[in-house]
Amino acid sequence: MIGVIGPGLLIAATGVGAGDLATGAFTGSKLGLAVLWAVLLGAFIKFVLTEGLTRYQLATGQTLLEGIILRLGAVAKWGFLVYLLVWTFGVGASLMSACGVAGHALAPVFDDPETGKVVWAIVHSLAGMTLVLIGSFRVFERLISIMVGLMFIAVVITAVQLRPDLTGFLHGLFVPSIPEYTDANGRDQGLAWTLALMGGVGGTLTIVCYGYWIREENRQGIESLKLCRLDLMTAYLVTAAFGVAMVVIAAGSDLDGRPSAMLIVSLADRLGQTTGQVGQIVFLVGAWAAVFTSLLGVWQSAPYLFADFWSVHRQSKNDPAAPSPAAAIDRRGWRYRGFLLFITFAPMLALGHDFEVVQMLYAIFGALVMPLLALVLLLLNGRAKWVGRAHRNRWWTVLVLLATIGFFLYLGGPKLADASIRLLELIGLIQPTS
Fold this sequence. Notes:
By secondary structure, this protein is an all-alpha fold.
């Protein structure tokens, strides 16, 4: 069974973590059940995007990144590299912080929660690096599958035990609305947190790594597309259920008055009053499993992107007309392991910043993946010369991709631009504005 839906479970594990847990919790506490629709929409959009990149790879033998570099020109190639580096820093900081928060909640050995967050964040980052270095892909896949089951059961059961208002639950799922929410500085953040929820659910740039995971499973040729679609459908159903559960768990909680490093502790305390100590412990274990599997998945998958970029860049310089290699990435090569070291250590520089701020900025910035990837898929999968007439985008896929681009540019453009600037300030690439 793992061999059939294994890559999909990796998508679910990598996407369900800091994005769904932390962003879902913060958004649920601020906006309530009214934004449940954003979870479903985010999961559906990412299913369409991942299916598109999978279809391209199986039809052409190239990963999506190979297609970008070899067919869309230098601007797309170097733009991707810049985005990859900035995104890696942001997602690394977010996942480390989330693991630190979860670690402190499970083992509060430090009196100061901020100290506990930082120490546990570093421990989890080093543990993730070690497991990726010493473990084979098959061991990694089985470990992730077990932890996905643990986190899904624990968090969904917790949400069901809370028995949310059925009318509000259904209204939030099927009637889109964006509640108003004003932060301490008087700024309306309702749209920002809704976009963050959509960007966080189901992962961001890590969805591109699905192509490398199906190569590890030796899925090649368009005949594998049906299996991959089943795989992805399972993955995003799990992802949507987890995201909805986190919003339900956090709805009605007041997290604004508590330190963000105490996020999971605050939620667990509230659950303890409703579900008892057993329910509290179940949630804590599920929350930890969610964020650590996400960290482990990103630590394993993000280096694929850099290694593939470097290899195809060198190939395009030597012979741009040469066909792209279909071999799996060498996980023992310096490109893969060098980038693994980068994601393990570089984001530690951001651990001193407020967890809530880091999480929102990363999730919003990560949401840029959706319109950018939609545009790439419109171009690459729109030409019969490249993917074959039978595998071009269908009319409904084109509509979804265009709607994704339009939605984020029209509603989210200003928020995405502001988040990008603030994230660059956090990294230190530009000076903070007053």
